Each structure stands twice: as structure tokens, then as C-alpha cells.
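FOLDING PROBLEM:
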Amino acid sequence: MVRLTTGARWTIVGVVLVAALIAVMLLQQREQLRRPGADPNDQGLVAARERRDADTPEALAELRRQAQLPPCPQSGSTPGPSALATISLECAADGSTVQVGLALAGRNVVLNLWAYWCGPCADELPAMAELQRRAGDKLTVVTVHQDENEAAGIARLAELHVRLPMLQDGARRIAAALRTPNVVPTTILIRADGSVARVLPRSFTSADEIGAEVEQALGVRF
């Protein structure tokens, strides 16, 4: 039987206490991020990463070529949603940086929050693409990938033959800023004046179904 010295016992106690303290701090950070008013750009509050280290421009080049995603919207003519004003994300089409608030300004927008591993998201994305085809310039549909595996997100859109703009948001900055439920898919309807008209934490099965919500909330008919 091995007997621990007093010093060894105190060392073990110290290690346990430090581990417990780290766990508490991580939990507090996650709770802070969920609280109303939490700054999604505060690096101390963001538990997840925007993307994996493996998702370099070189590693994503071939996936981007296969997916043929359209460019993300750029600056509009009026102030965008104030909650998104300080958020900058990567556009999956070409790796460019998008200032989200400015990019959505002056547009009627459908933001579709999703993740590559989400089954209902995969069922819904083709309907989102059809909605954009029907609406034309009257509406801007933008997908927001909420997982740090950017490569898997681009590959999923390519597999589904969905060609919509994709913002890479592994840290869920948009969801935190708009205080949406922690579920995917979630669709956010934003008016041209930058105000949020509706948050829809549910899945859709057709462009008609989404279009009915768009017409009622944004007054856009097509």
C-alpha cells in the first residue's frame, strides 16, 4: 500500500481545485454569451471558433470551385441591423470578409441559420434556393453556417446543388447578437430598414411555405 506524503496530498488537492475552477469559468462564459446584451464580438465570451485550423484558403479552394457559391452581398445604401453592425464574417464563396450589418442594409433579407450535420436543414435548403429564384431582386436569401467545420458546410451545399451565399459563423455571432433560440434551422426575416420582422425556429418543406411567411412579415410578393 502506497502512502502519500502531506505535500503530495496538497498537490492533488490543488490540481483538483484548479480543474474545477477552469470548468466553472467555461460555464460562466457560455452563460454570458447567452445573456441578453452580451457582445458577440467579445473574444472572452466566444466559446466556439469561427472555423477549424484545417480550413485554410488552400484547403477550401477545390471545394469552393465545386460548390460555385454566389458572392455574398456587399454594403447596402442604408444602415443595416444595428445588432449586426460590428460583426464581420467570412464569405464561403471566396474567403472575403463581409461586414454583416452593412451587407444586409437596404434589403429585404431571409437569413437561414443552419449546420452541415442538421438533417432538417438539408431538407430545407433547396426550398430556400427556390425561394430566391422566384423572388429575384425583391429578396436576398443568405445562409449562415453555424459550425466551425467550414469545409463540411461548403461540401453540403455542393452536394445539395444549393447555390446561395454562405456566411461562415462557427462562433454563432449572428444568433447571439439577435438572441435567437439555440436551434437549427432557424430563419430570420429582416426588413429593408434593418429591423427584425420575425424569428422562425423551425424547418420549412417548400418555397411556398417560406414565401407565405415572407409575404406576411415583409410584404414581399412574388
Summary: Confidence is low (pLDDT under 50) at residues 20-47. Strands lie at 88-91, 97-99, 109-114, 140-145, 166-168, 186-190, 196-200. Residues 57-218 form a domain with the Glutaredoxin fold (CATH 3.40.30.10). The helical segments are 6-34, 57-67, 100-103, 119-135, 150-160, 173-178, 207-218.
